Predict the 3D structure of the following.
Amino acid sequence: MKRHLLLLLFCLMAILADAKTYVVSVGISRYQNIGALNLPAKDAKAVQELYAKNGADVLLLTDEKATKANILSSLNTHFAKADANDQIVLFFSGHGYPGGICSYDIVDESSGLSYSELKSVFKQSCAKRKIIMANTCFSGKLRSSNQVGKASHKEHNDEDTNVILFLSSRSNEASLEIPFLANSLFATYLLRGLKGGADINRDRCISAKEIFNFVSEGVKQKSKDRQHPVMWGSFDDNFVMMDWR
């Protein structure tokens, strides 16, 4: 009996060890048709470097490479590599609009990248662990909903795609760039938290609850209560966002 239990344990460990994370990191500072921003391309590059250090397979798209067609193509191709035990992550930093994000070549909302289009891509993936992290103004409205984003986690269920949405601000708030910070406010605390700053219990795993609490408190304090990240989805508090073991 003990031999069978040990064998099962080894098999489970092997499965976990083989699990991979596939990341598409997008940052757009210069747009073709709308105003420029200062830090999104730097945000995406920093996220790429962090996940690569953690062993993830990361694809970086910045500025003119981040057209709508290229983002969608890259998501479909990159996430197709994942199997059920893997994790897929989209990080986006740039302009946004209620219900979507602004690709490099956006002209108006009708030509933007809507949440429904992102949702369709994520739904096609067989990975059970799916995360979207968006740093845009009014990002609380990324998901189509009548609810107003609040400074709390697990705000809404999205069972049909099982996607965690970690958004930089409420639906009526801007996402700030603070002077003297190398990255945008949300990305600054996200990076610090995923590097280990959010690991309150020191188990080398950053849970959804830990990262939300860390980022939310940091952003709220640094912005003087002007920006409040939100987290949506159907998931356990102990869902692992980053594993450094």
